[in-house]
Amino acid sequence: MSSxxxxxxxxxxxxxxxxxxxxxxxxxxxxxxxxxxxxISPQQLQRVANWTIGLCLVAIVGLAAxxxxxxxxxxxxxxxxxxxxxxxxxxxxxxxxxxxxxLKVYDIALAxxxxxxxxxxxxxxxxxxxxxGWIKDARVSRRLPDTLVVDIVERSPAAIWQHNNRLSxxxxxxxxxxxxxxxxxxxxxxxxxxxxxxxxxxLDRLLTEASSLKELLAGATWVGNRxxxxxxxxxxxxxxxxxEREAKAALAKFAHMDGANRLLGRGILRFDMRxxxxxxxRLPHEGQVAPAKLDDxxxxxxxxxxxxxxxxx
Length: 313
Prior knowledge:
Blueprint: H1 19-37, H2 42-67, H3 70-84, E1 91-95, H4 102-109, H5 122-130, E2 135-143, E3 147-154, E4 157-163, E5 166-171, E6 176-180, E7 190-192, H6 200-207, H7 211-214, E8 217-223, E9 227-232, E10 237-239, H8 244-261, E11 270-272, E12 280-282, E13 288-289, H9 297-312
Helix pairs in contact: 8-9
């Protein structure tokens, strides 16, 4: 029996892969290159990272406290502690009030449920004050230990608005200030009609084209939400056309004619300039004179003279 010799060969060498280590070294070297390229040192970069993480954690804790009501409870306890220490609203100082009812301001400023100086919401107080018609602007501040200071800018009355048998004071922008009675009406122009208060600024711009007539004006009616009828203290009414440009042109022409030839005060009831090509005069007892064209002031004078003659006849 022959013996068979088994040759033991060498086991194949294990394959080692160095690619991942090479990539890791490449990646690490690139990261180091980026860090070294930064204008700060690695130590400073580490501190920035630590601060960033810390701030993020603080923000997370703050959000959680706010969501669970902890922040509100802490603020409430703080406000109560301040109030117990004697810092409570006891007085209100009003600055800049002339026409306004001060008691109304006191009531608004002291309407806060919590009188602690720390708990008073100044923006809420200002918001409530701005709902009061007379107040154009307001600033609210604290004066320790127990005073709220309310600094007010008042609106100025510019006209009286008559609508639905009610009279109200309004400012130049048409904001309603307060109701007035016939007995307490100030000597201001009267605007009549729905939404006439909202057109007060338009009327003021219109009258700048005829400043000589502004002092003679007794009132104005906003007709059909499209045009003005002006009433003068001498009793006449001037009907203006629609459109701001057309109305300004007509009023400027009328002011020029009145300044040169005195149209007002001659007993005419109405001057009708709604049609730019015609100048219609309405007399008492429905009499009427209507020149076909109005080329210059002489036409108006002739028309007034004819109207006066017709009235006497």
